Amino acid sequence: MAPSIRLSPAARSLFDEPLAIAVQGLGPRQQVTLRTSLRDETGELFQASARYQAGDDGELDLARCPALPGGSFSGLEPMGLLWALQPQKPFWRLVKRDVQSPFLLQLEVLEGHGERPGRLLAQAQHERAFLRDGVRRVPVREGRIRATLFLPPGNGPFPGIIDLYGIGGGLPEYRACLLANYGFAVMALAYYRYEDLPKELKEFHLEYFEEAVNYMLQHTQVKGPGIGLLGHSKGGDLCVSMASFLKGITATALINGSVANVGAVLRYKDITIPPLGVDLKRIKVGKSGIVDAVDALHNPLEGPDQQSFIPLEKAECCFLFIVGQDDHNWKSEFFAVEGSKRLQAHGKEKPEIVCYPGAGHYIEPPFFPMCAASMHLLFGKCVMWGGEPKAHCEAQIDAWQQIQAFFRKHLTGKPSGTPSKL
Fold it and tell me: Where is each Acyl-CoA thioester hydrolase/bile acid-CoA amino acid N-acetyltransferase domain found (predicted)?
């Protein structure tokens, strides 16, 4: 019997779902190398490999068989061949631009454990998809709004969420559509560097975001009376500002967000919040030329920088802070703790703070490979994001459950019983 790869699900799975990988038909205790490859939409190649030894029966099940030292990872890691994928081009981050097409994952079984790959024994392909069957993708161009709304299958109405990404701009849709697969109506909202929106990070007007909130609140497929906000990085402090000043926000989840306004002036009616100051002298540059900017921002508790602290005590919503404790972009844990102190000092409910040791800045949906460093638009240089691959992967899996449980609880009133694994 020739060796073959057995996958479950067999041909296609959602990107954030586990994939069971096994090899059958090998010789007893045969040594093999398993390799995965994936090309992003720009053609850049991501690869991972691991060394294994088959059982006495010639079977190799990654859920039961630990990887041996010498590959991209070792130990019992059923999903290691996915989370350990690394770009062949340095400092390149895996993103999904067109969520309507899947990523194509290639799996190969190669003979032996040599530095150079041995003979090819078996191969398989698998689609990692972003949209569950029946989820509708609706481009939104109403008034000034530039967004995409994802609606789950069925009649609704569904709990509604607005999803904001960070400083990269554009309109990333992959987190929003993956969340919509679980019964949420999710709007991926662009706010700059997209179509006719501002090209530069100079000033933002909260009225634009208010338009998006009102669109969601009035939508027949969105369950009221309020909506949720989900923001990462710069998107996080925009969500804090929205929650603080706008009506109709019930729950706000931040992934490594700031509670001070960062990077650009924020205006709303007659209110102006200046950006938090930056001290470029506190930026460290390593031997490899990678920038570590973790100490660059001023302290929003001191001097004139206090004006940058967003008055989140005005918010009428619950907060969840997801924190990577090895975030090198800025001090996410400090921001979460100070936000919590401020809320409690004003008699507000203590927010949920979930901290992940060994997790960096880019806490993405599950099984996105960790990006340790990549180009930063503001610095124009390669910046360190932090994280340790295995711990970061585990954080992404748990945070994804925490975020869904938080929104389910506060937007539908139903607890979903997903205790933290960490």
Answer: 16-142
